[in-house]
Design goal:
Blueprint lengths: L5 E4 L2 E4 L3 H12 L6 E4 L13 E4 L1 H9 L9 E3 L1 E6 L5 E5 H4 L5 E5 H9 L7 E2 L2 E8 L4 E7 L2 E7 L1 E4 L10 E18 L5 E7 L2 E8 L2 E8 L1 H9 L2 H12 L4 E5 L3 E10 L3 E2 L2 E3 L5 E2 L7 H18 L8 H29 L4 H16 L1 H12 L6
Parallel strand pairs: 1-12, 2-3, 2-13, 3-9, 6-15, 13-21
Antiparallel strand pairs: 4-8, 5-8, 6-7, 10-11, 11-12, 14-17, 14-18, 14-19, 15-16, 16-17, 19-22, 20-21
Helix pairs in contact: 1-4, 1-7, 7-8, 9-10
Bound molecules: flavin-adenine dinucleotide.
């Protein structure tokens, strides 16, 4: 390799300035970390404004964001109750904020509003945007990362690399399961108004979620890939008709935004850390969006890693014991969240009659049994803390 002009020295390099990477940087700074921190992203800063997702955020996530002064007060729509049912079968239940004694079961916020609130708290010099990592080499006391930025090769010497670059490509380190489902996203106007109610409707194609967002519903319409292509190709009227058919007649949908779609796979990294490297957020585990666990889990990764680095015995952030202790500490939360989400998708996404009856009985039991409802609600409101 030719000699490069610039070598940047840092202590913690976070690759991926998405919401999880930014949360980690903020939590470290707020915790008074003596380490130098640098965030690197392949995209220009602010690219998140084009992201079409809306996320259901748990009450616990709101509390963490508030602690970081990064809760976007005006952008979140509170969920007051959640109606859960299955198409073509009996059984349904409603989880309410009154029963769970909380102000809201969760909040719905656009990804771009979440990201911009975090970004606004970060110093401009902290992020190296539009940068592509070309190579990483481990050295005796650190790692050397070579990258390309605006046609110029640069190097970063760091003691720890945190991978927060979102869903990984397939590799031997990742366990992947393809759900053969795509999420088609849109924002639609309901009639009558939603009154802060979210709907989770399980259909043979996959789950259909309606999340209150401003005056609209953010729709996550999960279907097999070929149906997703058809939904994407429809004009607005036909799309609203297809949505109406899948949802039923309890509400009418009158307008829709343009649509976007995401293929859905479960991706679980086997080991959370390696020599001077650690993985968090979607880079560590990418889940099906059905129960809105992904970012809520990712923010807990960032929070716990910041705590581990701030309270670790070693001054070296790449210390193997600190990283291994972090990985061990995250095991129950990540495997529990992945199993919970994966279980829901597998049990609910089919039209097998005995399973439909079992599902109906399950929903009925949930409806009749407050402690079971409290367990499900706890996952949504707090994440693993409830468990
Ligand atoms: C349809 C859908 C609905 C969802 N709904 C919910 C929900 O309701 N609730 C919830 O909690 N979660 C939800 N999720 C999951 C949630 O979006 C993710 O868990 C969350 O975005 C993960 O954040 P992250 O920062 O880890 O990764 P990302 O948001 O993917 O950010 C990764 C960042 O890394 C950058 N990057 C990528 N590759 C590189 C590279 N090679 N080098 C440098 N930078 C790189 C990207 O530009 C980006 O800025 C949903 C996901 C989908 C697809």
């Amino acid at each position: 390799m030719t000699e490069t002009a610039t070598v940047i020295e840092t202590d913690i390099l976070i690759i991926g300035a998405g919401p999880v990477g930014m949360t980690l940087a903020l939590a470290l700074m707020q915790g008074g970390s003596p380490q130098r921190i640098l965030l690197l992203d392949q995209n220009p800063r602010g690219s998140y404004t084009k992201d079409p997702r809306a996320l259901a955020l748990s009450h616990g996530t709101r509390q963490l964001l508030e602690t970081l002064d990064a809760w976007h007060m005006n952008a979140g729509t509170a969920i007051h109750d959640i109606h859960i049912s299955q198409a073509g079968g009996f059984g349904r239940t409603v989880i309410t904020r009154e029963e769970q004694c909380v102000e809201a079961l969760g909040y719905v916020m656009r990804y771009r509003d979440l990201a911009s609130a975090l970004d606004a708290r970060l110093n401009e010099n902290l992020i190296l945007d539009a940068s592509t990592v070309l190579a990483t080499r481990m050295e005796r006391n650190g790692a050397l990362v070579t990258l390309l930025r605006q046609g110029v090769e640069m190097q970063i010497r760091t003691q720890l690399i945190v991978h927060a670059e979102g869903a990984p490509t397939e590799s031997a380190d990742i366990r992947t399961f393809d759900y053969h489902q795509h999420a088609v996203l849109a924002e639609v106007r309901p009639q009558p108004a939603h009154q802060q109610r979210a709907w989770e409707r399980f259909t043979a194609d996959g789950p259909l979620a309606l999340l209150p967002l401003g005056a609209d519903y953010s729709v996550v319409f999960t279907v097999p890939p070929e149906k997703a292509d058809a939904l994407m190709a429809m004009d607005d009227r036909a799309f609203l008709g297809a949505l109406q058919q899948q949802f039923g007649s309890r509400l009418r949908f009158t307008h829709t935004s343009p649509r976007a779609h995401f293929p859905l796979k479960l991706r679980l990294r086997r080991e959370l850390c390696a020599e001077r490297e650690v993985w968090i957020g979607n880079a560590a585990q990418t889940l099906h969006p059905v129960s809105g666990q992904g970012f809520n889990l990712g923010i807990r990764d960032a929070w716990e890693l910041a705590n581990a680095l701030l309270s670790g015995d070693s001054a070296d952030p790449g210390d193997a014991h600190t990283l291994q202790a972090y990985a061990q500490h995250r095991r129950i939360d990540r495997t529990g969240s992945a199993a919970f989400t994966d279980g829901i998708v597998r049990v609910f996404s089919n039209d097998f009659t005995p399973l439909r009856i079992a599902r109906g009985l399950g929903l009925l039991a949930l409806d009749l049994c407050p402690p079971a409802r409290k367990f499900v609600a706890g996952r949504m409101i707090w994440g693993a803390r409830e468990i």
